[in-house]
Amino acid sequence: MNTNIVVAIDGYSSCGKSTLAKALSKKLHFIYVDSGAMYRAVALYFLRNSVNMDSHEEIAQALKNIHLSFHSRDYQTHITLNGEEVSEEIRQMPVSEKVSTVAALHEVRVEMVKQQQRMGKSSNIVMDGRDIGTAVFPHAQVKIFMTADPKIRAERRFKELAPKNPDLTLEEVFESLAHRDYQDTTRAESPLVRADDAIILDNTELTPDEQLQFVLDKVLPFVEQAK
Ligand code: CDP
User: Fold this and answer.
1) pLDDT digits (tens, 9 = 90+) for 32-63
2) Are 213 and 1 in contact (CB under 8 A)?
3) Is 105 left (phi over 0), alpha (psi -120 to 50) or beta?
4) What distance in angstroms lies between residue 87's CA and the mean position of ligand 1's atoms?
């Protein structure tokens, strides 16, 4: 029987999923997978190669040409696209503007979900995204559905992006997040929706330590059980 522990963290854009997932995986020595980074890297490839999203052939060929891998350095997770480190570039606005359209494509989802499920087959894992508790790991032991006030989310993301994007405004970030949330919640395939058994975590008023403790309390019983 497969006894590895899976923690699925889903939720809206920029509500701190990756901060929580990283802290949790560090504390418990679980593998951390940022599934959003995978969709972002695919979107970057589509942008760079002007992949025609109306053509099934072009999408299939592009997916064959895309090789993603994760590695850790300085306690940070990095992602490579065909051997090139793209962790910074995938966070910039051009990719953010494109990613939800690319992530809605059936072929893209099938391929990413396959790769994600493989990663969770034999290791304890924390994965964050939009469909982890509903589609990727419907049997995850712990499912968290994260949310936070949209204004606070935009402010957090703006702070991250502003130093390298002096022309960017808070309003643009707010609009971009709202648009992405709309696309993610209304798409036909695996939309962002809370799994029935997911615990809601609204972190608008929580510090990173408080949200970590909240989730640790849910996961630790499974860790004890597995000993
Ligand atoms: O960092 P942020 O929360 O803004 O987004 P992300 O986790 O990097 O995900 C970027 C985009 O990828 C999302 O807006 C979704 O369109 C897509 N995504 C998805 O469809 N399914 C996932 N499991 C993860 C991300």
Assistant:
1) 999 999 999 999 999 999 999 999 999 999 99
2) no
3) beta
4) 14
